[in-house]
Amino acid sequence: MPEEIPQLGLGTSSESNQEQWADRVQLAIDVGYRHFDTAQAYGNERYVGDGIRRSGVDRADVFVATKTVHPDEPVATEQEILDAVEGCLSRLDTDYIDLLYVHWPGPEYDPETTLNAFDELYDRDTIRHVGVSNFEPDDLDRAYDTLDAPLFANQVECHPLLQQDELREYAVEHDHWLVAYSPLARGDITEIPEIVSIAEKHDVTAAQVSLAWLLSKENVVAIPKASTEAHMVDNLAARELKLDREDIELIEGISEERRYITREYASWA
To answer: Is 265 noted as a catalytic residue in this protein?
Structure first.
């Protein structure tokens, strides 16, 4: 098992009203979250940092992840990547980043250039861990061949409608984390009959069932989004839900597969 990471974090991607994340992050810390996921391309790092600072919690007690190297925020050289990360540090108002991801293996991503920059950031202690996002097995193989620093995590869409068996197995085999984004299938989890029946059986919410299923897997953590205190608390409660073998088999027998996040440059496109 790789070094620990808070098993349930708060995802902060959104298409509008980025300022809201200062209040949401502060609220999330108040109810018990200690893992926050953002990105240069989200445009909200400053507000995530504001929320952490306003909470009064020691920076060392919060796990902060962000991402760079995204086609919407093009960087091409090692120095441009290093400069981009300096911008992330400034906006987050922190001296270091717990986990820095390569956001997409898209047209701006060159393994040697990008990962050499990540190695340098790791050697400087600017970042504590190296991660990648939206990587498929071939991309991961190349990253492992290129990096000197340990690969800590691969962040991908994962939920009962996109179970990512191969990537989960790869994570266990190579001893890194799979960090599941969109773990509630963009809210559609409430419409999946198998999930609803398990939720009724345990007198819990469909969201808790989806998250509990993910957290029952080796080397998997999840970063659901939540905008209200009630939803934040509800999601955290999934850590206490223990699904039985019958529940697990029912979820893993779901035949429908649905991917919500894709790009023309994605490895699977």
So the answer is: no
Residue at 34 is within a domain: yes
What is the domain count for the chain? 1
Q: How far apart are CA 226 and CA 112, in angstroms?
A: 36
pLDDT attached to residue 250? 98
193 lies in a domain? Answer: no
- What per-residue confidence (pLDDT) applies to 268? 87
140 within some domain: yes
Alpha helices in 124-205 (DSSP H): 137-146, 165-174, 193-202
Residue 239 located in a structural domain: no
Give yes or no for residue 16 having a pLDDT over 80: no
Compute the average pLDDT of residues 90-104.
98
Query: Of these residues, 33, 42, 109, 122, which one is catalytic?
Result: 42
Which residue type sits at 132? V
Structural domain that includes position 101? 10-187+218-230
Taking the C-alpha atoms of residue 107 and residue 266, their distance in angstroms, rounded to an integer, is: 10
Answer for the pair 8, 37: CB distance below 8 angstroms, yes or no. no
Give me the phi and psi of 102, to 5 degrees please: -75, 120
The answer to pTM > 0.70 is yes
